[in-house]
Design brief:
Elements: E1 10-17, E2 20-29, H1 34-47, E3 52-63, H2 65-77, E4 83-86, H3 88-97, E5 104-105, H4 109-112
Parallel strand pairs: 2-3, 3-4, 4-5
Antiparallel strand pairs: 1-2
Helix pairs in contact: 1-2
């Protein structure tokens, strides 16, 4: 029997936390669902490429290679480093492929949305 209202594999929501724009993905990110995530990320960057973007993957149960490719492509378009909050199923493929080194990996949303510190102020004067 065909379900007329199938549950989507991936849902994506965006909201502001301070100066950061958070994209929360829930579900599976694969070839069929990745356009939903890509569209949300591109819409943010079209409006303001200077925005700090945080991708909350903490409730993602699967991250396929197409999802990693989209995150890498979007990271290249960002003027600020892309911040990720991955679940274990999302973190593992990012680490195995070496892609994790290209993002700011955060353990939770609070850490990911902390304001960027002014590093110049921490340099001691001679």
């Amino acid at each position: 029997m065909h379900d007329p209202n199938p549950t989507p594999l991936l849902t994506v929501h965006t909201h502001n936390v301070g100066d950061a724009m958070v994209v929360t993905a829930t579900g599976e990110i694969d070839l069929n669902s990745v356009p939903v995530l890509e569209r949300a990320l591109r819409d943010i960057l079209i409006k303001d490429p200077e925005t700090v973007v945080v991708v909350d993957l903490s409730t993602v149960s699967f991250l396929g290679s197409t999802g990693i490719a989209v995150l890498l492509t979007v990271a290249q378009s960002c003027r600020q480093p892309l911040r990720l909050v991955p679940s274990y199923p999302a973190r593992r493929p990012l680490e195995v492929t070496g892609a994790a080194e290209l993002f700011i990996m955060c353990d939770n949303l609070d850490t990911a949305t902390e304001p960027v510190k002014n590093r110049a102020s921490t340099i001691p004067e001679p």
